[in-house]
Structure formats: structure tokens, C-alpha cells
Amino acid sequence: MGCDVTVVDNFERNSISPKKLKDLGVKIWNPDLRYSSHILKRECKDMDVFIHLASKVGGIGLYTSKPLDVFEANCNIDNKVFELAQVSNIKNFFYASSSHIYPKDLQTDVAPPAIREEQAFPADPELSYGWAKLMFEKKLEFYAKQNPDMNIAIARYIGIYGEGQKYDLDTGSVIPVFSNRAFSYPEIPFSVWGTGQETRAYCYIDDAVDATIKMVEAMEDKKLVGPYNVGKQELTRIQTIAETVVDISGKDIEIEYDETKDTLIWGQWCDCSKIKRELGWEAKTSLRDGLEKVYADVSKRLKEAK
Questions:
Q1: Which region, left, alpha or beta, applies to residue 280 given φ > 0 means left and ψ of -120 to 50 means alpha?
Q2: pLDDT tens across 229-256, in order?
Q3: What percent of the chain is modeled with pLDDT above 70?
Q4: What is the C-alpha separation between 3 and 53, in angstroms, rounded?
Q5: Mean pLDDT over residues 123-140, rounded?
Q6: Between the CA of residue 161 and those of 25, 83, 253, what are the distances in Å?
Q7: Residue 80 belongs to what domain range?
Q8: Measured at the alpha carbon of residue 201, what is the angle toward residues 1 and 177, in degrees to the nearest 5?
Q9: Cα separation of 15 and 291, whole Å?
Q10: Which residues in 47-76 are b (16+ Cβ under 10 Å) and which e?
Q11: How do residues 163-190 score in pLDDT, each as one tens digit?
Q12: Is the pLDDT of residue 34 over 80?
């Protein structure tokens, strides 16, 4: 879009090399944002927009086994980055929140009613990740009320996926992990944590980028943009995702369901009509098209890794 871009990333969870970004004229910094964000002060001074996407994320196994680590890391990152934005005279600050901020009792059914933005309270997220996100949302809202010098936008992303995601079987997200299992079958089994009857809504990355741009542009006229649910309003079962990935692979695969694993969130579906009504955005990419792109990407990277 003709912008000067600086990326701050430790490249822990994607396949894009710093060299590729540098070739595009993008500046790269990779400090640990929990401790050393201050070294970016001079580089970030007077930038127009901060798009804060950084957080400690992973599969459900990470969230359940290391809740304190996740909570502390994300609170630390959020506060350090916001301090950096303040001392750098940033005018527009975009924050990536999550659908995990919603109360767990709204996500106990496989086909729950779509969750609206105002249902975040009374607060009771299932995961420490959601608690950290919700607490920082409130900090930003308080800041917007008290300080006229910075505009704030908050997006509650819902199941964003796409090429380049980490496909590690222990810590990766479900769609790249399923793609890995299908490509690697039968050397590794195609196993699914739980019954497969859990429902989710997934949104392809290009659609999420479009929503982000619209929200950044909206800060030109509004002090506080959002919070908005940003996702695709299409509910699907984990079993359906697994079966679709298997079909895309073209293999004869037996899917195994590990029902010894507890299911914490049975249904996660959010109402995205508010951002459509107020900013004119809605997700366009079909789940099948998105899964095909991710499977092709994971397959390519796995072949290159051999």
C-alpha cells in the first residue's frame, strides 16, 4: 500500500524468513518483547500505526499445561508494547484480541448461539490466554477515555488460519497440524484430540487482513474502533475439518479420535454482524478453499524439510 513497514517478530511460529521480508524493503527487528522493547524506541518514534499482533500462542495442549507461562508472557508483551507506543508518540494503536475472551458458559454446547461483543461480561474465560487478552482490552478502553493523544482499535480474531503457520504436532494450531498428519500418513497416525464433534469457526488470513486494514482506516475518524468480532460466520465441526483435509490429501486415511482427552470448549461461534454493519466487512473465503491453500503450503514445506 506504499507504506514504510517495520516488523518485530521472533519468527517462532511461521515460515516466512527475515530475508524474504528484507527483500521487500521491510525493516526487521527481533528482540524479546517481554524484556527489551525499549531498544525499539528510536526506530518507532512518530510512526503512524502500531499493529500489535504479538503474543504467546499455541494449541490447546499449551494452554492447558502451561497457563501461568502463557498469562505472564502475554501480559508482559502487551504492557511493554503499549509503553513503547506511548513513548514513540504513536497516533493509532491496533490490538489483536481473541474470541477466547468470552465466558466459558457461552461455549459449552456444540451449536451455541453466536456470541455478541457485549457478552464478554460478566467475565469468565476458560483459558489464561483469554484472561490476558480481556484485561488488556479493558486497559486500552480506559486509556482511550482518559487520553486524547492516541486512537485505539480492538479486533477479537476468531480462528484465523493460513499459509506459513507452525505445523508442529505438539504446539501447532489445528488446521496446519491436520495438514501435517494427512501429508505424513501413514508414518504418523491421523489422530484428533477429542470426539471431533466440537464446533469452531475459522477465518482465512486474507479476510482477516482486509478487516484489519478497514479498522486501521476507521481510526482516522474514531477514538475507539471496536471491539469487533473478526471471523467467518460459518460453524463447522472439527470432524468435518479433519475429513475435508483428508479428502484434499487424496489419501485413504483412517481418522482416530482420542476421546480420553478432555474437551474444554465445545462450541466457539461469534456474531460478526457488527463489523459488517459499521465498517462493511465480512469474510469471503470458503473453508474448502482455505484448507486447500494450507495443505499445499504445509506439504511443500514438509517436502523441503526432508
A1: left
A2: 999 988 899 999 999 999 999 999 999 9
A3: 97
A4: 18
A5: 96
A6: 25, 29, 23
A7: 6-305
A8: 85
A9: 17
A10: bebbbbbbbbbbbbebbeeeeeebbebbbb
A11: 988 888 877 889 999 999 999 999 999 9
A12: no
Question: At 26, which CATH number?
Answer: 3.40.50.720
Phi and psi torsions of 294, nearest 5°: -70, -40
Q: With respect to residue 240, please indicate whether it lies within any of the assigned structural domains.
A: yes
Position 115 in a domain:
yes
Asked if the structure places residue 1 within a domain, the reply is no
User: How many structural domains is the chain composed of?
Assistant: 1
CA–CA distance, 70 with 87 (Å, rounded to integer): 26
In this model, does residue 38 exceed pLDDT 80?
A: no
The pLDDT assigned to 14 comes to: 65
Question: Position of cell 502475554?
Answer: 74
Report if residue 258 sits inside a domain.
yes
Instruction: Report residue 14 as a C-alpha cell.
Output: 511461521
